[in-house]
Amino acid sequence: MEPDVESTVTVRQHKRPKRGEPKPERDRERAEAQRYVRKDGKCNVHHGNVRETYRYLTDIFTTLVDLKWRFNLFIFVLVYTVTWLFFGFMWWLIAYIRGDLEHIGDNQWTPCVNNLNGFVSAFLFSIETETTIGYGYRVITDQCPEGILLLLVQSVLGSIVNAFMVGCMFVKISQPKKRAETLVFSTHAVISIRDGRLCLMFRVGDLRNSHIVEASIRAKLIKSKQTKEGEFIPLNQTDMNVGYDTGDDRLFLVSPLIICHEINQHSPFWDISKQHLAHEELEIVVILEGMVEATGMTCQARSSYVSSEIKWGYRFTPVLTLEDGFYEVDYNSFHEIYETSTPSCSARELAEMTARSRLPLSWSVASKLSQLDEPSERNGDLANMENESKV
């Protein structure tokens, strides 16, 4: 026998409230809809039981960049402090081994570092060496080959530490994550008739005057499915065509745009009607990508729509008006929708009804006459066969 395959989706158990206690708000929201991607674009997935944690250390630069700001700043300060303390201890150790600390104030003695009289002064000299401040009060002499070697090592390692940590902070600061905060998606997605076809639509907009270069958008349907062989696939991803074949997925995002997905025979919504949609457990994830005009870095904004946020029979309120010499966008109406006449059947049923209504009259009459003539012809043939058999 083959072993049973368990589902990879982990369900977290929460403490059930006692009878009479109000249900927590967080549990209430989870009961309404379990999202794969939240409305703010963050993915609602937690990675657990990761045993190969060494992989994070092999890519330490990306690991540091992905850390939160408080941990990043703490590591930044810690690395410099540990480096200064380590080399300060090495300078103090050289002075202690050579006996420089026993000949403080002796003008006949040539120390490794002038005016180094303890660990504090060695720590200050370490900072001066690594940061190349160079006050000129503590300097290394030419009678200390081990000190010259340590100076070379600290200069090289200090440059590497500076390049690594400053580069990490620069990438952290210049990340375009905050640019996605000014890319907005409509609160709801709508389904209505457009150009005689049933379409699913949502609206995107950019609040900044600096544009997103080479902006493109794509959408995926997240829904669990079971294959013909009985395999259960949790959170299966299906592409939704939002204009890939026509180029409509490449956006010139100057004013808010309505993204349209035509529900045809290739669409996952082909057999879904209004009544069916209300009981479906699905989620549409939309991803907007492009380059930030100011920095040239790639930016990505995400949002999602669950079945309760897809309104059947609605359209978006226009937000663009023509003023004196310019176009004005009213973002107060960005999320507003209004009801419109839309059939509640699925796109498949609508296409079948449309095809039946377009049948020509002559073809239908001829088909009916042929159906009426077939029995008489068959009866005539049977009569002739009987007469021939009698003869």
- Proportion of β residues? 15-25%
Overall geometry comes to elongated
Helix content: 25-40%
In DSSP terms (H or I, runs of 4 or more residues), the helix count works out at 9
Mean pLDDT: 81
Largest sheet: 5 strands, mixed
Number of strands: 14
From the alpha-carbon coordinates, what is the Rg to the nearest angstrom? 37 Å
Low-confidence runs of at least 5 consecutive residues? 1-31, 361-391
Q: How would you classify the helix and strand content by structural class? A: alpha+beta
* Helix-strand pattern: HHHHHHEEEEEEEHEEEEEEEHH
Q: What gap, in angstroms, lies between the N and C termini?
A: 71 Å
Task: Describe how the helices and strands are arranged.
Blueprint: H1 25-32, H2 54-58, H3 60-66, H4 69-98, H5 119-131, H6 145-174, E1 183-185, E2 189-194, E3 197-206, E4 212-226, E5 232-240, E6 250-251, E7 257-262, H7 274-278, E8 283-292, E9 298-306, E10 310-312, E11 314-316, E12 320-322, E13 327-329, E14 337-339, H8 347-357, H9 361-390
Describe the overall structure.
Helix content is 36%, strand content 22%. Strands 1, 2, 3, 7 and 10 form a 5-stranded mixed beta sheet that branches. Strands 4, 5, 6, 8 and 9 form a 5-stranded antiparallel beta sheet that branches. The protein has a two-stranded antiparallel ribbon with strand order 11-14. The protein is built from 9 helices and 14 strands. Helix 4 (69-98) crosses helix 5 (119-131), helix 4 (69-98) packs antiparallel against helix 6 and helix 5 (119-131) crosses helix 6 (145-174).
